[in-house]
Specification:
The chain has 16 helices and 10 strands. The protein is of the alpha/beta class. The chain folds into 2 domains: about 270 residues, NADP-dependent oxidoreductase domain (TIM Barrel, Alpha-Beta Barrel), CATH 3.20.20; about 80 residues, no CATH class. The strands form 2 sheets. An 8-stranded parallel β-barrel has the order 3-4-5-6-7-8-9-10, surrounded by 7 helices.
């Protein structure tokens, strides 16, 4: 396992991280714990979850997993997040999180999911930074972090606060261009840089033929997607949401025989990434809960097929709608253009326009 400095904290974290968002069966606690143990035995020491992953089930599973790691004397860092912004709300949440995780303090605590600057200003006005600093003084958290979905150079406003020790952000083989400025800002501040969605929410392994530009001889698409991120020396950790123990083993195997590209080699590969990858929905689901009942995540997944379709492919959106057998184009026509989904979208996708296109 490769370990890198987490910003200027003095902590060394594994380049591969364990994300608790995608367990295949989160109710099978024994299997989930086995996955965490397998990762830790392979050298993973960074475990990330959130109170919104399977409700609070992921944090509960992590509590059992972290207890098993302690029993086996396997080192770990625990990371989680909060949507709350008021001091009362945050304190109520972190008290419950510490109980679920069964730990006295959270190593990396994140202000969760900043999607736009207005969202950030609202939380800031609610006193979120002051509360996080109090929690650190009280030793309930060890490092103040932020989870950002801002693109281009918008993230600079957050980093000007000087309060954050690390940033969790989306960066992968299909969205280098839209996230590069944000990444550059993180590097300039010398912060911990943890990458989420290294597989593009499943898009990359589902379309290996489109990502051949990043594969070296003998590499699978999954291995190549991880290694191309590891080639960035400023990336502290790549956070993979594992579904099964087989996926854990595959990611660990990617470390075997890994040889980093030079900066020139990396730049050459990134230059080959098709611009058409921009705008692909990664399926985070934050747009769910449409007031009009539109199944937006499923419809955006269907629209992905148009973006990823081969030339001349017949009705790729329709094919995907068929795979989601309970969907119809008419579902998209229910959209009232209220804008709630676009405000929640972490990738700033023009959802309303896409829904109109799907509806015909």
């Amino acid at each position: 396992m490769i370990y890198r400095e987490y910003g200027q904290t003095g902590e060394k974290v594994s380049l591969l991280g364990f994300g608790g968002m995608r367990f295949k069966n989160v109710d099978d606690h024994d299997e989930c714990v086995r996955m965490m143990v397998a990762a830790a035995e392979g050298g993973v020491n960074y475990f990330d979850t959130a109170p919104g992953y399977f409700g609070t089930k992921s944090e509960t599973v992590f509590g059992k997993g972290l207890a098993e790691l302690r029993r086996r004397n396997l080192p770990y860092f625990a990371a989680t997040k909060t949507f709350e912004s008021s001091e009362a709300g945050i304190r109520k949440e972190i008290e419950a999180q510490l109980k679920r995780l069964n730990i006295p303090a959270i190593d990396f605590y994140h202000i969760w999911c900043i999607t736009d600057l207005n969202n950030w200003k609202e939380r800031k006005n609610n006193g979120i930074l002051q509360t996080f600093k109090k929690l650190k003084d009280e030793k309930l958290i060890r490092h103040i972090c932020i989870s950002s979905h801002l693109i281009k150079n918008e993230i600079k406003e957050l980093l000007m606060e000087g309060a954050f020790e690390g940033v969790l952000f989306g960066y992968s083989a299909y969205n280098f261009n839209t996230r590069q400025e944000a990444f550059d800002a993180i590097k300039e501040k010398k912060l911990g840089a943890v990458v989420m969605n290294p597989m593009g929410g499943g898009v990359i392994p589902q379309h290996p033929e489109l990502f051949g530009f990043m594969r070296r001889e003998g590499e699978s698409t999954v291995v190549a997607a991880l290694r191309i991120l590891w080639d960035h020396p400023e990336i502290t950790n790549t956070l993979v949401g594992f579904e099964t123990i087989e996926q854990v083993k595959e990611a660990l195997q990617a470390m075997e025989g890994y040889k980093p590209r030079t900066s020139a080699e990396l730049a050459e590969v990134k230059a080959k990434a098709p611009a058409s990858f921009e705008g692909i929905c990664t399926g985070c689901g934050y747009c769910a809960g449409c007031p009009a009942g539109v199944p937006i995540p499923q419809l955006m997944d269907a629209y992905n097929q148009k973006l990823l379709a081969k030339p001349g492919e017949k009705d790729p959106i329709g094919d995907r709608l068929y795979w989601h057998w309970d969907l119809e184009r008419a579902d998209a026509a229910k959209c009232t253009a209220c804008g709630q989904c676009e405000k929640a979208c972490t990738q700033h996708i023009d959802i309303i326009k896409r829904l109109k296109e799907i509806a015909g």
